[in-house]
Write a structure and sequence with these properties.
Largest sheet of chain A: 6 strands, parallel
Largest interface: A-B, 65 and 65 residues
Distance between the termini of chain A: 65 Å
Number of helices of chain A: 12
Number of strands of chain A: 12
CATH topology of the largest domain in chain A: Rossmann fold
Helix content of chain A: 40-55%
Radius of gyration of chain A: 25 Å
Strand content of chain A: 15-25%
CATH superfamily of the largest domain in chain A: Response regulator
Oligomer: homodimer
Strand order of the largest sheet of chain A: 2-1-3-4-5-11
DNA sequence: AGCCTATTGGAAAACGTTTGCCGAACGCAA
DNA sequence: TTGCGTTCGGCAAACGTTTTCCAATAGGCT
């Protein structure tokens, strides 16, 4: 680590002919006032010398840094990057910096990153991304976060419920259920599901909601029409391939994320099926490009940017007991699911 | 800012019955050794008490924080999120944290963010995103970065050349030129361009390279066949609309980014033109979904993840004079540009 | 004039670390 | 035994801030 030598407050004070205390008060403000003339002089001096406050020093004495730490599974995934974008917008408004890390969906890494975050003494830690059902690290992670919270930090989980912390919950069950209704209403009868890892609660919820929605229309989702894969574009491609190999008669496929739907769509075409023509295809999330593909993708809208904002709101408002914000979802029918 | 009270090194030292100095050496290691037995005892105590080193305190005394600061235009844009992903992977390997901010392409914000970054004393600052041609803040930003560098920090610019700093340069001109060749070879004759803001060097380069490539095949790109818009999906949609309104006879359209191409494609379809059938469409960047759309998008591959890695490599290797890494690009022909 | 209160500058103590130095303990050769 | 080098623990200074006092000055009131 190269030594970085910088202008210090002491140098500014000296140059302005005041004490360090006064310089501090003049520049970074506090309850105490400093006379206008001195204040101006100090500020000008600081400007001239190119003084920049040392955030770490401030953090040491204040006990917390003006920072919010964000942990996401994968920043290259448009789902997470859209949420992150909302978080960063909120953070900027609140004058906070953002430190970010990706867990790559490995929960041991998640635990380590949270430890590292704690070392930074951020004002809040936001964890985005579905939790695994049988996560060996779950307890360790929760302990870390609890300790952090008890030390005065705020914890916000996005799409991680149930949990003892503040929560931003996406209505996955309801959205998938409504989607099922809509698809049946369009004339779908034989449904398949391209499912991200079942162990991720998000997927489990979306599957359950979809099955429930179908059931409410008198259709039973067969287990053999569900293919599981990684919760990524490639996973969708692979799972769809598997589904095709099973030689079922499907007229509509629901993928538990838009990203998986894109992969599934490519697999369909490679098998000679045009989504939106011979077979229907629906996703979930309504990520940015889902309306630009051909055929435009039927999906369930999740207001991703808003989610980030809400997470920051929770992080900043102080309240005693944990709160939950429910994010409503809504079905968007597009050309990928034809009316029959 | 809530006071966060935490276990300190002093408490660990006390509990372990050693001095603070010894505790420090036992836990965070240094040149000096501490006997195995004491070392073990201290570590165990730290573990039991849940001690976490205070990174800010360490930063204050060491003079720099184990952090790399990243500034991107817009994290929700897949171009930037893919690069960020590479950067974060590199940072993790190097044991560094990442602090991230978005400038929203406003250069005044960019300047402010860099100031804030400097306050954090990061080990490196990475700035990703094309520079504006006539940027009123350009000088202020360069001064900030120069001062930072002189204080011992490392600066890496991605796609920002020319600049006095370390540079990761994408071969935009060459890529666009090669694309033009390939499109002419496929039988294209009447070309249009959906251009992101011309003031962004990236767009200017891609346009220039494309025009040059056409010229080398004996085709002159007419100014009236170029429509300019925001460097986003919506910009592409709007610019394509404008182009269509001009009533030209185009057989192929080059959009200066995949994102713009997606928007342009939607505009084409709304006008009754099928990309890949009546009209060719090509993009630039090869973002993740470009092969999943229908028709799959012809584009110029830019290895975005690698770019991030290279940026981190530059940030970490220490060398005197500024270096430049050239990232090669390569044409990928897909169905959106039919062979005629 | 005398007193009380507000205002404002400065000295110094914190905050949680790392590290330069000192000195104690030990091993070993002479 | 002395002398000397090596190992390793601890004291205390430093890092760049904020904040608690304390003191000095100014102003208002009687």
């Amino acid at each position: 680590m190269p030594p970085q030598h910088q202008v210090t407050l002491a140098q500014v004070a000296e140059a302005a002919g005041v004490s360090i205390a006064t310089a501090s008060r003049a520049i970074n403000g506090s309850t105490r006032k400093v006379s206008e003339v001195i204040r101006a002089r100090v500020r000008r001096t600081a400007e001239e010398l190119g003084y920049l406050p040392n955030l770490s020093a401030q953090t040491v004495v204040k006990g917390a840094s003006p920072t919010v730490a964000v942990l996401v599974s994968d920043i290259a995934d448009p789902y997470f990057s859209a949420i992150s974008s909302g978080i960063m917008a909120g953070a900027r408004q609140a004058g906070l910096m953002v430190t970010m890390a990706t867990s790559e969906r490995r929960s041991a890494d998640e635990r380590d990153m949270i430890r590292t975050f704690r070392s930074q003494r951020p004002r809040a830690i936001v964890v985005v991304g579905s939790r695994w059902d049988e996560d060996p690290e779950a307890q360790a992670i929760e302990e870390q976060l609890t300790a952090y919270q008890q030390a005065g930090g705020r914890v916000v989980m996005v799409s991680q419920g149930p949990s003892p912390f503040d929560l931003v919950e996406i209505q996955n069950v309801e959205g998938a259920r409504a989607l099922a209704h809509a698809l049946v209403d369009q004339g779908g009868q034989h449904f398949g599901v391209v499912l991200g890892y079942r162990g991720l609660r998000t997927n489990a919820d979306r599957l359950a909601g979809f099955a429930q929605g179908l059931a409410e229309r008198g259709i039973t989702l067969q287990e053999e029409t569900v293919a599981e894969g990684a919760f990524t574009r490639d996973g969708g491609y692979a799972a769809m391939g598997e589904l095709l190999g099973r030689d079922l008669e499907l007229d509509t496929v629901f993928a538990t994320s838009d990203l998986m739907a894109f992969g599934a769509g490519t697999a369909m075409r490679e098998a000679g099926l045009q989504p939106g023509v011979q077979i229907g295809l629906a996703g979930f999330d309504n990520i940015a490009l889902s309306e630009d593909v051909t055929p435009a993708l039927t999906t369930v809208d999740v207001p991703l940017g808003q989610i980030g904002r809400h997470a920051m709101d929770l992080a900043l408002s102080d309240h005693e007991e944990a709160r939950t914000i429910e994010i409503p979802t809504s079905v968007i029918l597009r050309a990928s699911t034809p009316v029959r």
